[in-house]
Each structure stands twice: as structure tokens, then as C-alpha cells.
């Protein structure tokens, strides 16, 4: 098995440099800066303003963009199924 990249979640900050984030724990939505450590260049953990949950920024970005991200995964899976079974007239693939 090898890893597959199905898409990249991108987030564009607003004019104040804030990203739209959503807590994966309590689902509170808020705006915050995503900062990174000067030494390691690793993104600092994001802390939820509502419940205090601390996690990687990508977790918050994924929640905020979940519908788009899930659709990318779904489309990818559907294309793979069509490739695998598309030539078989006994199998009908519908969304
Ligand atoms: Zn929270």
C-alpha cells in the first residue's frame, strides 16, 4: 500500500491574516492566525477559543473545509471505481 494524495486543503487568510477554522472537538468556528515556530518551521498548535482543545492547524482547517475535502475524496474514489469496473456492463455505478 502506498499513500495517495487526493487533494490539498488550502486556506486563504483574510486581510487581517486570519484563517477560518473549526474546532474538531466542539465544532466552534472562529478566526485565528496560523503561526509557525521560527526554529523548526513547524506550524504551532491551534487552540480552540471555545473549549481549549489544542491540535494541529490542519485539523481545524479540515473541519472548516470538510465538505470540500470530503467531496474531493468521494470524487477520487468514484473515479477509481469507474476505472476498475467501468468496462463491466453488469456493474452500474451511480452516486
Ligand atoms: Zn473547541
What is the compact description of this entry?
By secondary structure, the chain is an alpha+beta fold. The chain has two helices and four strands. 29% of the residues lie in helices and 13% in strands.
Topology diagram in text:
Elements (H helix, E strand, L loop, with lengths): L18 E4 L6 E4 L13 E2 L6 E2 L1 H8 L1 H20 L10
Antiparallel strand pairs: 1-2, 3-4
This protein binds zinc ion.
Structure, explained:
With 95 residues, the chain is an alpha+beta fold. The chain has one domain (19-85). The chain is 29% helix and 13% strand. The protein contains 2 helices and 4 strands, in the order E-E-E-E-H-H. It has helices at residues 57-64, 66-85, and strands at 19-22, 29-32, 46-47, 54-55. Strands 1-2 form a two-stranded antiparallel sheet. Strands 3-4 form a two-stranded antiparallel sheet. It is elongated. The model has no long low-confidence stretch (mean pLDDT 84). Zinc ion is lined by residues 23, 25-26, 28, 48, 50-51, 53.
Label this structure with key terms.
two-stranded antiparallel sheet; 2 helices; binds zinc ion
Give the overall average pLDDT.
84
| Ligand species | zinc ion
**Structural class label:** alpha+beta
- The total number of structural domains is 1
Which blocks of ≥5 consecutive residues have pLDDT under 50? none
